[in-house]
Write a structure and sequence with these properties.
With 361 residues, the chain is of the alpha/beta class. The chain contains 13 helices and 13 strands. The chain is globular. It starts with 7 loop residues before the first helix and ends in a 5-residue tail after the last helix.
């Protein structure tokens, strides 16, 4: 990932000589030592208002990079329009045995089977409380402990714990690395989950927006069920998507490692699913596009498929922190070239992508 904002080209060979998780831990430690100045000025045309929040730009850092809320302000200072910490579970947990994080350099991809390793609610709460007066949109991605007897109850605990500190919540029911978790995406389970979460939200003094993060591996009928379950205000937005269990087209010798695949190979699958959900929801629910974003063109592809906002993470492993300004600059250039706006581009190709896919793109 990144050892320093400007030193990534020099640091990359050193970091990539280490196993992926050790390199990531060193990156986080280095970032914690760095100041967190105000983000660089942003093109005003990139501002987005979505689910009641005002984003300076549509590019966010996905959950997984900063699991324990250690460096949200450092990441915002790179120019991200928002950042998302977690996934955070009520109790600390170690996650799955190492090694559990793998770079597939030939494919510009990553496989992880981390298993929601994190320090728990209390540790994240203390850190978010310290930075509470600072500006910037910081979402909290909540999950369930592996050994929980009431997984929905764990998500409810997350709502109760972070409602006074989170800019928004993301309900992560789509990680493939906690056995049985993805079953919560079925219509009956999802409706039960969202009902309990909304009851919990109604009990809070503050009611941050709630997003749902789904898998890219869902069938069309499952997507239809999710669209129905998420309607009528049950959620404020949906993130499409988490990692995939698919391995089509990979070249790396590590492709057989169990876990969720992220990075460039997920771009087409996740974008088609995004477009399908845009059509199913008829644009009534703002969508966040994640999966394979690695340059301005891929970010714009997500927006044209129906995303109001986009997220990335894996691309930082290969391209470093300058990627943020490169993507934002590329989006601005495209708006100037077309003489258009983000709002006009959002969803403009959704029908075509949903019906015909992205072969050859």
């Amino acid at each position: 990932m990144m050892l320093a904002r400007l030193g990534f080209p020099l640091a990359k060979p050193l970091l990539h000589a280490l196993d992926a998780e050790t390199a990531h831990q060193l990156t986080i430690r280095a970032l914690r030592l760095m100041p967190a100045p105000a983000p660089p000025p942003c093109d005003g045309r990139l501002a987005v208002r979505a689910f009641g929040l005002d984003f300076p730009n549509p590019l966010g850092l996905a959950a997984g990079f900063d699991k324990n809320a250690l460096v949200p302000d450092q990441m915002l200072s790179l120019g991200f329009g928002f950042t998302e910490i977690g996934t955070v579970t009520p109790k600390p947990q170690d996650g799955n045995p190492r090694p559990r994080l793998f770079r597939l350099a030939e494919d510009l991809a990553v496989i992880n089977r981390m298993g929601f390793n994190n320090e728990g609610h209390d540790a994240a709460l203390k850190r978010l409380a310290v930075r509470r007066a600072r500006p910037g949109i910081v979402g909290v991605n909540i999950g369930a402990n592996k050994d929980s007897g009431d997984r929905i109850g764990d998500y409810v605990k997350g709502i109760h714990a972070f409602s006074h500190l989170a800019s928004y919540f993301t309900v992560n029911i789509s990680s493939p690395n906690t056995p049985g978790l993805r079953a919560l995406q079925s219509r009956a389970e999802l409706e039960s989950l969202l009902t309990r979460l909304n009851v919990a939200r109604d009990m809070q003094d503050l009611r941050p927006p709630m997003l749902l993060k789904i898998a890219p591996d869902l069938r069309d009928d499952e997507m239809e069920d999710i669209a129905i379950a998420c309607g009528n205000g049950a959620v404020d937005s949906i993130i499409v998507s988490n990692t995939t269990l698919g391995r089509d087209g990979l070249r790396s010798a590590l492709k057989a490692e169990p876990g969720g695949l992220s990075g460039l190979p997920v771009l087409l699958l996740s974008t088609v699913q995004l477009a399908k959900l845009r059509m199913l929801t008829k644009g009534a629910i703002p969508l966040v596009g994640a999966g394979g974003v690695h340059d301005a063109a891929s970010a714009l592809l997500k927006i044209r498929a129906g995303a109001s906002l986009v997220q990335l993470y894996s691309a930082l492993v290969y391209k470093g922190p300058r990627l943020v300004s490169e993507i934002l600059g590329g989006i601005s250039d495209e708006l100037s070239r077309q003489g258009t706006t983000l709002a006009h581009l959002c969803g403009c190709d959704a029908e075509a992508i949903a019906h015909h896919g992205l072969k050859g793109k």
